[in-house]
Each structure stands twice: as structure tokens, then as C-alpha cells.
Amino acid sequence: MASLILSPAEQDFIIRGVEKGFRGDGRGSLDRREVTLRTGMISQANGSARCRIGSLGVGTDILVGVKAEVNTWAAGEPEECGTIVCNVECSPSAAQEFEGRGADEINVELTQLLDRIVGGEQSGLDLRKLCIIPRQAYWVLHIDALVLDVKGGVADALVWATRAALLATKLPRVVVESVTDDSGVARAEFDVVDDAEDQMGLEGARDLPLAATFNQIGRRYVVDASEQEEAVTQAKLTVAVSPKMEICAIQKGGMLKGFAPSLLSEITQTALRIAKEEFARFDALFAEASKHNGELDEEPSTGSTFLEPF
Amino acid sequence: MSANIFDRRRVNGPPRSVEPLYTDEGDVKPFTNGGRADGRSLDQLRPIFIKTGPLAVQPTFSPTAPSGSAYYEQGKIRISCAVYGPRQGRKSNPRMGSFDCDFQYAPFSCSWKRRPHIKGADEKEIALILEQAMAPAIRLEAYPKACIDAFVTVIESDGKFATISAAINCISAALADAGIELYDIVAACSMSLNASQWVSDCNQAEEDVSQCSLFVSRMPSADEITYLLQQGKTMPDQTDRAVQTCSNSCARVYAVLSRYLQASMEQPAS
């Protein structure tokens, strides 16, 4: 993402602006850009969402699909849990350097970040509920994210889209019954009910965290950096906070600098402070999105028409 | 996927193998009756051993020899690191040098499973973490158009987060050995949360039963945290406390590192 090269004058302009509390697009240092959320646009997936952070059709754009599969248990795997497998892929349409193997590094970074945030117990999802028959069968949730456009703040958009997709995910009901075979041995068997009406949401999806990335620019930091701001970012810190105000994951990024310890604790405090507003904003957007769930003809979801004109 | 690829250039193990019978020793539960299995106190680190220059070809200078190298032990963890450079790189930036890191587990390094030769996603990510943790310490602007490479091999690992922090300490020593200009030595330390108690420098068994692991890498004399990674859920004040404690432990690791490096300067290795 270092493709954007700014002149020293422009870099200086951004850095000094941030230190004085001004940003190029008029936001305050803790303001997020406009967020657009749509859910249920992929009919083949169990849950899907598209999140764009940015305005007027220009912004970081991420499409997430959640697909559930039944897996047979093998020795060495957890006995009474389902699993979550994350994969993030940056489309070459997002930036030229993602062509070929150019996106490998960022794919790995984002995949591991997403896995760290939603891949285990820390996500709040009840993985035990994803177990169908202990030591026999369990659900695997494949979270596949496609980064369609990169204009700064990819990690945040990724977590927002994933949270929406998991909240929208519906698993088919599974009927477990005990079958006695000819030799009189009883064993459990299951049946996946193939009925679009008979589905249920994921247990604990409301506890999923949201992430905010803080970009250190000069001596201050900003939330949701634009592409230009990201080009002068010295270090960044992604903090994932759950609705219960717990910290679910922290990861530092950026090669150029570290954080002063005082700044670090200030950032985690700020992350918790803004989390409440972020969740309120997410909930409003998600409720709006679920209202016209997947009605594509009313709400075209591709290209710049994805956004409603102002 | 990678496990099924037959690699004819290497000696492959038998296609089928039987799990050996383990003695009861492996079944010791960590944190039973309040203490740690190895008798350490909660904030005690495992003993550290460092040696710089194990990979140098002496006395004849060879162009293939690394500019600096280090071997690091911390309890069961054994890591070796070779640093090459500053040398001509593929990516040449006229204003700054680049620092690249390569991280690999040896196939036999992990207790639970054999590692395939092909790099997994976690190894690639750890390499990225190491780059981001070390780069703030290196005076990259002093090496325009050049490239500095660090190759880390984990011979034995014991705890993922502990291994990453050990790798950071090892690279620090190797970079110093190579004579790369640094702002400060980076020292790292890991911690895990178990039953709302933070435990320093956990081994694999202890990390497995913990609900949260975290590591901090820090430049103690510059007082700058170069990396912070937390996996798992905590209350906010717990994270603050852990970063504090980890920072103090980093200072202790730093003291060991700098004492060794100073001594190795005064008495060149025979």
C-alpha cells in the first residue's frame, strides 16, 4: 500500500495538520469516514456483507462471504467445538501492485489479523454450538473476504464487514438422532434440514468485536486514515473491542517507528471510549441493511451506484 | 495441501507411522496447586543463553558468510539467526534501505506436529511481525538503496509468543554482531493470562491453557514500544498492567543482551 508517493511538501502538510488537529477532508482526528453497509447480497453463502468506508464511491470496499460446511472429525482436532477459517484476498482491481503474487504479504497479514480477532473464543462466538456430534461432525465457518478497493483503513473495514456477515449468517438446522444398526450398536447420526425457513443465526454473534486502527502521524494519531494519511503513517495500532468493552486483540503495524508507552495506553483508552459510538453506528447501519436484505434491484450494489447519491 | 506433496529431494519419513508411547511426564498440568510446573515464579523468565558469530566462517573470509549471526536459547527455545547486508537489494529505494526478514520453523521444532518444508501462513506472518518489530530500531536511512536480510531458523520452539519474542532478541544480537547501525537493541518478552494472573515467558503447555497471550518488544533506552501483539480477550486494565510488566521484563532481557554484547566486544571470540 506504499504505492502512493507524496511530495515532501504534501507530507509535511498532512503531518502538521494532524498535529494541530486538522485533517485534509475536514474530519476530527477520531472521526470515521462515511460507512456503507449491505448484507445478504450473495445468495450462495450462508451470510454475506459488503462494507465501504469512504464517500462518493471512493473508499475501501470489502466483500465478505460466510460459508458453512460440515466437517468430519479427525483425531487431534478439538472434540466439542466447531472451527472458523479466515481467508482474505486482495483483488488486483484494488491496486496495481496486487497483481500476481504482489498481494501475498498483505493477504497473509490481513488473514492472520482477522483470524486473531474472530477466529477463536475471543470473538464471542460460541464455538461449542458449532459442534454437531462430539468427535464425529462439526461446522466449519469459512469467512472469505475479498478486498475490492483500498483507500486506507483496510483492517477496520474488514472487521466491520465480517461482523455484519457473521450477524447475517444463518445456519440450517441439524437433526441428530440415535440409530441402532444390525449388530445392536447405537450411534449418532445427523441430518441437515434443507429448508430456507428453518435456519437460525449464530450464537454469540452480537458479542463480536469491532476494530479501530490508530495511525500515528507526527506526534499525534488519527482513526481511519485516508490513503494520503496512510502514506505518511509511521506506525499503526489496530485494537479490537467487544460490545462488553473488553479488548479482544491488539496488533501493531508499520515499519517506521514504535510507540511511546504513554501514547500506547492513551490509544487503548481512546479505543474503548470511541467503541460505544462505533457500535451504535454499526447497529444502525446493520438494521438499515437488514431491512432491504439482498433486494438487489432496488439497491444496485456494484460500482459507484453502490452508494446512494447525496 | 502441502503435506501431501512428495518431495523427492529430501529424505521423507515412512508413509505411516505410529505414535510413540509417552511417559507420564508430559501429562503434568501447568499451574496445578498455584505454582508453575518448572518451579519458576510468575514473573520469572527462563534463563537466556546468547552467542554471536556461530555462523561466521573464520579465519578465511568467505563471500557467502553472513555479516553477522547469533544463536539464542531461552529454556527449551533454540533459535539461530543470520544477518546479511547491507548489500544490494532487489527493491532499491534511493532514500532508505530495506529490512527483510525470513522466519522458518525447522520441521522438528514443534512438539505437536511435524512442520512441512513449505512455509505456512503463520511463518510468513511471524516474518512480517519480526520486520515490523525490528525495523524501527535500524537506521535504515543510513543505508540508501541497500538491503539488510535476517534469516531466522527455529531449531526448537516452546510457546508461540515466547518463540516470537526470543526471535526478536536473537535478531537484535545478530544485527549488533553484523555492525548494522541501530538506535537501540530491541528486547522482547511474552506473557499469558491464566485465571486473571499474568504469567511471564510461558512455555507451550502454559500458553495452551491460557485465555490470552501477549508480547511486547521494546527499545528500553529509547523508551519506545516497537511491537505489541495481543491474542485473546482481556479487560482493559489487564492489558495496561501486562504492557507495564512486559516492559520491565524487556529491560531485564536488555540487560542480559547488552552485557553479553559488551563482553564479546572486549574479548573477541577466539
TrEMBL record, chain A:
The keyword Cytoplasm applies. Keywords: Cytoplasm, Exosome. Residues 33-172, 207-272 form the Exoribonuclease phosphorolytic domain. The keyword Transmembrane helix does not apply. Its main location: cytoplasm. SUPFAM superfamilies: Ribonuclease PH domain 2-like, Ribosomal protein S5 domain 2-like. It is found in: Cytoplasm; Nucleus, Nucleolus. GO terms for biological process: exonucleolytic trimming to generate mature 3'-end of 5.8S rRNA from tricistronic rRNA transcript (SSU-rRNA, 5.8S rRNA, LSU-rRNA); nuclear mRNA surveillance; nuclear polyadenylation-dependent rRNA catabolic process; rRNA catabolic process; TRAMP-dependent tRNA surveillance pathway; U1 snRNA 3'-end processing; U4 snRNA 3'-end processing; U5 snRNA 3'-end processing. GO terms for cellular component: cytoplasmic exosome (RNase complex); nuclear exosome (RNase complex); nucleolus. Belongs to the RNase PH family. This is Ribosomal RNA-processing protein 42. It comes from Coemansia spiralis.
UniProtKB/TrEMBL annotation, chain B:
One of its GO terms (cellular component) is nucleolus. The keyword Nucleus applies. Residues 44-181 form the Exoribonuclease phosphorolytic domain. GO terms for biological process: nuclear mRNA surveillance; poly(A)-dependent snoRNA 3'-end processing; rRNA catabolic process; rRNA processing; U4 snRNA 3'-end processing. It is found in: Cytoplasm; Nucleus. Keywords: Cytoplasm, Exosome, Nucleus, RNA-binding, rRNA processing. InterPro entries: ExoRNase_PH_dom1, ExoRNase_PH_dom2_sf, PNPase/RNase_PH_dom_sf, Ribosomal_Su5_D2-typ_SF, RNase_PH. The keyword Ligase does not apply. It comes from the Eukaryota. Residues 1-10 have a biased composition (Basic and acidic residues). Residues 1-39 are annotated as: Disordered. GO terms for molecular function: RNA binding. Belongs to the RNase PH family. This is 3'-5'-exoribonuclease. It comes from Coemansia spiralis.
